[in-house]
Amino acid sequence: MDSTILPTAERAAPAMAHTEPFLAAWQSLESRLNGAQPRPLKALRQAAVDRFAANGFPTPRLEDWRSTDVEAIYETRFAYRNAPGTVTEAELAPFRYAGCAQLVFVDGHYVPALSRLTELPAGIQAGSLAEALAAAPERVGGQLATLARMETPAQAFVALNTAFIRDGLYVAADRGAVAETPIQALFVSTGDDDGVCFPRNLVVADEASQLTVIETYATLGRGRHFTCGVTEALVGPGAVVDHYKVQKEQRSAFHVAALYVHQDRASTFDSHSVQHGGALVRNDWVAVLAGEGVSCTLNGLYVMAGEQHVDNHMLVEHVAPNCYSFELYKGILEEASSSVFNGRIFVHKGAQKTDAVQSNKNLLLSRQALAQSNPQLEIFADDVRCTHGSTVGQLDEEAVFYLRSRGIGDEAAKSILTYAFAADIVERIKPAPVREDLEAFLFQRLPDGDIVRMAAL
């Protein structure tokens, strides 16, 4: 199931220094586990830490990381928490989505007492990855890490996550099973020190099943928390998976994550990413459309301010014929924030009748904001329809003038146009609680948000 396309070729040696604290923390974890882990998982973790030790961290001298410097991450001494911190229900309430089955992970540890697993239909399993591995090590262990790549220095954080696998979300749907209730995995960090967690999520949708999975990342402590996560999704024939990721950690946090998707014939995978937290955010999305008649959607909205930096790297591989992919990523950048979008659509030889659309649009609200956009197409089939494009610009002064001529103040006019720019993504989000949460954030974030709210109704 591995992708057949390697990432962009490496052009320089990685940073080998600064790996020692992470390797020492891994050795400490191994000592505490004292062999108490399934054999397949132990072998996987050992291979991953060996890969990380050999490759080190990526640097801007590597093509895939040339616009994102992770020095702030490897220069920070993080605290590895062996138990979850204390969290109250009142603290969690703002991050819960109504009408969802919920699994709560605190500092990387599953907390059943805080979770709300409403009765799921027959054939749907949702719970802790650690518990699933303990119950069925061969089956779950065989599904884990079948997609994630960690061979090169560019994939160092995937190797790091794999080396520290402890827990995360596990969702499995049997053939024909339908989960009408969305499943929310809420990852929260606590503490005022610089904590780190490595959530590993696995979603397995068997033939003709249907799932909605929501990942939410939030910060309760004041430390510079580091989330290093990986999600793998195995989407079987005719299965339908809706995936949402909401990253709202505090602005001092670091968030580096990867999503790997493998789709079998006639399956549908729709993903929507919302990003407005973190000092440094990096997402690597890889989707392999391996069966005929597949549909894949990867949409996203990032709203950055201050000196926040977000980097979205996308790879969609069309392996089989008659497949459709759609990507729309939009960014709103204020003050001295910055963004990177690197999108790549690869159409294999024989993937005829491919229909692929890729678009990245950025709205700069200050002269200091910076957006870099690099959409790419690589096509090795001759009967395809593929388009890609990007825009980087500011608000239309004529549109602002028009609204002001109708009695709307300058700030309110700009906020209305900014919201209109984001609305294309907002309206595509199906679960009402997720959509309403994003709307509330935008109304609160934009000047004269009450006026914007009334205009949007």
Task: Choose one word for the global shape.
Answer: globular
Q: Report Rg.
A: 21 Å
Q: Which blocks of ≥5 consecutive residues have pLDDT under 50?
A: 1-13
β-sheet strand percentage = 35-45%
Q: How much is the average pLDDT?
A: 93
Number of helices: 11
Describe the structure.
- This protein is α/β, with parallel strands linked by helices and 457 residues long.
- The protein has two domains: 20-291, no CATH class; 396-457, no CATH class.
- It is 24% helix and 36% strand.
- Strands 1, 4, 5, 7, 8, 10, 12, 14, 16, 18 and 20 form an eleven-stranded mixed β-sheet that branches. A ten-stranded mixed β-sheet has the order 3-2-6-9-11-13-15-17-19-21, with helices on one face.
- Strand 2 and strand 3 (109-110) form a beta hairpin.
Lay out the secondary structure:
Blueprint: H1 20-33, H2 39-55, H3 71-74, E1 79-80, H4 89-92, E2 101-106, E3 109-110, E4 124-128, H5 129-135, H6 137-143, H7 156-163, E5 169-173, E6 183-189, E7 195-197, E8 200-205, E9 210-219, E10 226-235, E11 240-247, E12 254-263, E13 268-275, E14 280-289, E15 295-304, E16 309-318, E17 324-333, E18 338-347, E19 354-364, E20 370-379, E21 384-393, H8 397-405, H9 410-426, H10 432-445, H11 449-456
Helix pairs in contact: 2-7, 5-6, 8-9, 9-11, 10-11
